[in-house]
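Hi V.,

Quick status before I head out on leave. The structure for the redesign project is tokenized and pasted below; the design run finished overnight.
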């Protein structure tokens, strides 16, 4: 008797499952198809991004390795194209190559490339902070005080590993302008900073003891 009841219950469950699939066949098939499409799209996108990364890498390497005075214009053109690809690795490297090799003297143009990296490229936080610092360094000789501070404020007001570098740049900027009290304030901030770069801290101490000890 118990065995008969068990068989009936099992048959009933099977019938319910069967009816469920029959009733929801369209939904189930649609869901499966949707999942397959999503997985295919993700795979295709990943493959596209990988191929794109390889193409950018190859373009950067071939451009920089074949660089000479005769290829200056073409090198500059290719590197600007890479910057505009907004690649987190090769876009910053392209800008640094342009600056290091003086491929353009247009400061406004260089600053626009810095802004592309800072504002529109998905960089790791500290890589982005490094780009900000390099932008300030690039502009330091000609920038007004307010402009240089505007560039460096994201670092000065952060806990970034580049904070002490930003403070040192501002301190040296004010020292070069013979604004010694302002310079002293920034050097002292470096000294009191817990995670200050050790070399930067040592240079700040030297400057305070040697030139600003009055």
């Amino acid at each position: 008797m118990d065995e008969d009841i068990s068989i009936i219950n099992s048959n009933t469950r099977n019938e319910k499952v069967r009816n469920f699939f029959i009733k929801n066949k369209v939904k189930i098939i649609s869901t499966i198809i949707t999942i397959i499409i999503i997985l295919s799209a993700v795979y295709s996108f990943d493959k596209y991004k990988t191929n794109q990364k390889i193409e950018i890498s190859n373009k950067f390497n071939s451009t920089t390795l074949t660089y000479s005075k005769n290829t200056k214009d073409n090198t500059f053109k290719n590197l600007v194209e890479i910057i505009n690809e907004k690649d987190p690795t090769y876009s910053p490297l392209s800008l640094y190559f342009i600056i290091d090799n003086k491929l353009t003297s247009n400061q406004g143009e260089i600053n626009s490339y810095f802004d592309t990296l800072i504002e529109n490229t998905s960089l790791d936080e500290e890589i982005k902070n490094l780009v900000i610092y390099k932008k300030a360094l690039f502009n330091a000789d000609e920038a007004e005080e307010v402009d240089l501070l505007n560039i460096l404020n994201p670092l000065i007001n952060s806990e970034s590993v580049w904070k002490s570098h930003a403070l040192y740049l501002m301190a040296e900027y004010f020292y070069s302008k013979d604004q010694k009290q302002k310079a002293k304030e920034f050097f002292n901030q470096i000294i009191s900073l817990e995670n200050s770069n050790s070399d930067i801290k040592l240079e700040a101490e030297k400057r305070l003891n040697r030139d600003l000890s009055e």
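Above is the designed sequence. Residues 128-214 form a domain with the Serine Threonine Protein Phosphatase 5, Tetratricopeptide repeat fold (CATH 1.25.40).

G. will cover questions while I'm gone.

Best,
W.
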